[in-house]
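> Could you send the HAD-like protein prediction when you get a chance?

Sure thing. Input:
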Amino acid sequence: MTVIKEILFDCDNTLVLSEKLAFEACAELSNEILEKQGISDRYTGPSLLKDFVGQNFRGMMVSLTKKYNFTLSDEEFDSYVNRELGKVIETLEKKAEPCEGVIEELEKLKASGEYGLAVVSSSALSRVKASIEKVRIDHYFPRDHIYSAASSLPKPTSKPDPAVYFYACEQIGVKPEECVAVEDSKSGATAAKNAGIPLIGYVGPYDEDEKEHMRKVLKDECGAIVVMEHWSEFQDCLKKVKEAVA
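Output:
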């Protein structure tokens, strides 16, 4: 019988409504990259979000280089990553809000003492901490249980690479099957799936016309055991996951 010991939360648009703010902040840099390459296409925050949701900026730049067939040196990559991070953190510290209902559920989980709680994100550690501190949920997570694919690993990566999930499980001291992941994006959900972690999908932040599509993506393509639209559904969803893996 599998016992669930740890809940692993994605951060962006799962705990904190940050993706739109972040993508608005980095669209300018993406367009600068394209302009320097002589490429006429341009992105807005929403169009960038649509194409690259769930990826960190480094992963996004890798995708851009593949899409438009150009290269960037390591020095250029690092320079753009640092500039983007500064822009995004400044924006999040001013405007970030929690996902609706998440604080109440985190409070219930902490009060129960039944599970460990951790954040597992693609975003840089400084951005994740800025987000959860701004919305005042940082105290629900031990400081050493906040993991970043961009910052925590020996080699930076991004979801859908499952490396950050494997790393988090190793550091916490749990097996992947003893965890539950909560993810809103295809890339994040794919990372959890490839790590062998039971998954709860979350579609709350999506526009109404996108929710049904993402529900199918998370369930049919990414193997989510259950998909929730609001955090008030979390306890029921967690119960269904526990029943499915028992």
